[in-house]
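Convert to structure. Protein one:
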Amino acid sequence: MIVKRKASLTVSAVEMLHGDTLEFERYDGRVVPIEIVDTHAEIVRTTLKEPGREEPGATTVYRFFANCRIEGEDIRLEREVGTQASFYEPLEIGGVRIWLDAVDALFDFMRETHSPCRLQATCSRALPPRRQARLALQDASARICPETLHPWCPLPEGGLRIEDCYRGEDCWLGAYDGASAHGGLDINHPKGTPLHTPIALDDHFLYNSTAMGHNNNRWRGIRHWPDGKTWTLTSCHMIGLTVPEHTPLPAGILYAEGAGVWVGVAEHSHFGFAVFDHGELIRLDPWILFWQMYQDRAAGRTADDGA
């Protein structure tokens, strides 16, 4: 199957099967073909007695691969999850920046009981298979979006640290209790830590709250972009909002105090990111947002700089 995407204002997200080719058109009109040849995942080390069966406090480190053919060249994209390598640099090849977000093979030994994060099924009506590789892509000359990203929370000096992701496992797809892929990014910080909007938002609201009888305060922010994509940002474990719901918000405004509700053994905030692209809501690693935040900070940019 041929999948076509064009570089636009914001990062693209796509899920593919083995044998699919993504024809990604750069800003200059050049088309870069990216074929998914095959994918694989394997456990590097684990404290589990039985892989795939959760145990409180267990740890698992694993890695996954996507063997690709990019402009006729065989390229292996590789990720490791559960170590500092979880906060990785995207590959740049053929003028395209590529993040290998996930492969479905990791669910041969991981479960999905700690927030949604698995690849979607195909549209086939007869026992549809799951798609097998998830990528995020952008023209290598561009940002993930045209706006400078304000730090979502205070950014740790030197970058994010895996040991500060709850008990050291709750990065994106990290092995919660050794066996459940974590559907978000946890960052440890004290109760009351300020959370600011990374980008301007068209709408925002609590979709779960203690006031509604839930065990957590869970927030969603929505941004519609001129290129037709919609971003959904999520944060959880907040004490409460500091601004009214269902109002547009500028970038950089304090919207909540974090790390205060249902935090478990470590005070932390949970961050999520999804892109609605070509009719599908595709969940992605929030690290992609934090990667751009660190890039912007290194360049001395602030939210007031705009594009």
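Protein two, convert as well:
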Amino acid sequence: MQRSGNPRVSVVVPTRNEARNLEVVLPAIAAVRPAVHEIIVVDGNSVDGTIETAQRVLPWVKVITQTRKGKGNAMACGFGAATGDVIVMFDADGSADPAEIPAFVRALVAGADFAKGSRFVRGGGSDDITLLRKSGNAGLNGVANALFGTSYTDLCYGYNAFWADVLPELELPAVDLPAPANGEMLWGDGFEIETVLNCRVAAAGMKITEVPSMERERIFGQTNLRTFADGTRVLRTLAAERRRAVRRRAERVQVEVESRALTPPGGIPAVAPAQPEPVVKRAARPAAATRREGTHIRLALEEEAS
């Protein structure tokens, strides 16, 4: 697929009671040069006039309301409404620097499918992260890198960008699905959204480039992040995404084996008999590989099972 060297950029901003912050954040995004194509504010039933503030501060902003609850659902709603070639994930609390958007876009134009912001590479940093969150993030990085063969330095950072054409491969929960009756969130609807995206782009074999990013302190209000609860959710998501990746890989292998079985030496596909259906057994994994994988994911799977 041919991608533009001068892509239109859609910035998706999830919000929940961020009216005061939007008065600062939206004009700053709008001032970025080259100019962004659109800014999409996705509101999560705010009660502080977030929607009205967004429309007053930036009349051309696109405002939508998320369909369920959680940051992940808000992001998915924004992704679905985006019309640009590149989508940038941008927090509304003022912690992200809009001036970094061109760096993310350059990484994508240079060949990346996914540009991953990092506070822990040269040129990055944070004025906001606590020692506890930093330690937890480092531990989750290690688990993710072991499970997916990646070299992430900042798994849980939410400032990322990607080409819009990769959205189908991400397979996020459909925005029109009903919310669970028990009040819980669907997997992918919560703060684990960054983890889901990072796992799925890695499992799909996409090219990932980390971009240095400086995180500033939230301007107004209190964070919605719950350190222990959301950290546990991320760990469970890593386990679930690993199982998903293994299952998808096995399905692809089976399809390839079936395709080869129906193609004779001459190269002309044979007509598959109606009955009986060809039976293709999945190849058993070598015991050594199984032991290595088990070492990496045992703890995560036990957490998921509990």
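The first helix runs from residue 19 to 30. The chain has nine helices and nine strands.
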